[in-house]
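Good morning C.,

I know you're traveling, so I'll keep this short. The sequence:
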Amino acid sequence: MEPRKGSNADIHSEAFLHSLMRRQLRLSITCSVTFLIALLGLPLLNYFFPELMAVRVFGFTLTWFVLGVLFFPFVWLISWAFIKRSIALEEREVLEVEGERRGEDSDK
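The tokens, ready to paste straight into the viewer:
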């Protein structure tokens, strides 16, 4: 049975879902790598640059300032970027499918 004209069956097709999942996987990996760099970067900075990380900023050492003040806003920023980009990916995929459907309808 063929989907009716104007139905959203194309949006739920295998190709659409695989394409969307591939793009979201790439986004997830990018956000995860960014988080891991921040998470593992602080101990590495402490190990390789102890003098720099011991500098006082607002009464805290730079290590504690980054960990206690900057780390959580950074994680929120990664989360916000992930959500915004994920929604944009979904919307773009839907627009592409609808554009293809319009192109097919105009050919008939």
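Safe travels,
E.
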